[in-house]
Amino acid sequence: MGEFSTETGPENTFSFAQRLMSSENFMLLFREGMGLIEETASYLDGPGRKQSKALGTAASLAYATESMRLTTRLMQLASWLLLQRAVNNGEIMQAEAQNEKNKIRVDNASRDLQNPAWTDLPEKLRSLIQMSFQLQRRVKHIDNMLKEELLREQAANTSNPVGDQLSHIKATFK
Predict the structure, then answer these.
(1) Which of 43, 92, 104, 124 is the most buried (most CB within 10 A)?
(2) Residue 126, pLDDT score
(3) DSSP of 47-98, one letter per residue?
(4) How many whole angstroms separate alpha carbon 129 and alpha carbon 140?
(5) Rounded to whole angstroms, how far apart are CA atoms 24 and 20?
(6) Does an H or E element contain 15, and which?
(7) What is the DSSP code (8-state) at residue 14?
(8) Cα 117 to chain center, whole Å?
(9) Which among 125, 118, 151 is positioned nearest to 48, based on CA atoms?
(10) Burial level of 5, CB count in 10 A (0-12/13-18/19+)?
(11) 68 Cβ partners below 8 Å, 6+ apart?
(12) What is the CATH number of the domain that holds 106?
């Protein structure tokens, strides 16, 4: 019968977010994100372009604005997904990826759609926008978990100068 360790040091901590990122769940998220990017590009370059030409002035302006926001949001999400895949493949460390991820904007997932011409936009564009927000919320949640775990690891690995001095004093008087 094996022994069960009850040690609680940083080397024995379970990393839920990192385990999640290295699982099949991440690959599903990755494929979903990349699929949404492909679907959006295909729509905007094909049927969306034709549909936008049939819109009135206000709806046409809203279409241009929302499609640009959608494209920007998806490129930010693609960058995040590709960085995380590089971590999973051992190409870069999580801390290095996190420094790069800090440059990526995945934090406006709760943005409300206040555009007055929203209902005049093609249904497919509205659907793609909603799906991008759902993906963005999921990525933001995972990113926050990874950041918290990285901060905990860094704090656990940082020496405590006061504690070190107290340890030296105790060792001196033993």
Answers:
(1) 43
(2) 95
(3) HHHHHHHTS-HHHHHHHHHHHHHHHHHHHHHHHHHHHHHHHHTTSS-HHHHH
(4) 16
(5) 8
(6) none
(7) -
(8) 29
(9) 125
(10) exposed
(11) none
(12) 1.10.8.930
User: What is the rounded distance in angstroms from the CA atom of residue 158 to the CA atom of residue 138?
Assistant: 30
What is the gyration radius of the CA atoms in the chain, in angstroms?
A: 23
pLDDT at 88: 86
Task: Split the chain (174 residues) into runs of 10 and give each run's mean pLDDT.
Answer: 43 52 82 97 96 93 94 94 89 82 70 74 96 93 82 66 66 67
Residue entry with tokens 């991008």: 132
Does residue 145 lie within any of the structural domains? yes
Whether residue 70 lies inside any domain: the answer is yes
Residue owning tokens 């206040």: 114
Number of domains in the chain: 1
DSSP line for 111-139: -----TTGGGS-HHHHHHHHHHHHHHHHH
Question: Residue 146 has what pLDDT?
Answer: 79
The pLDDT of residue 95 is 76
For residue 163, being part of any structural domain is answered with no
Q: Which two tokens stand for residue 64?
A: 């241009």
- What is the spatial distance between Cα 95 and Cα 157, in angstroms, rounded to a whole number? 13
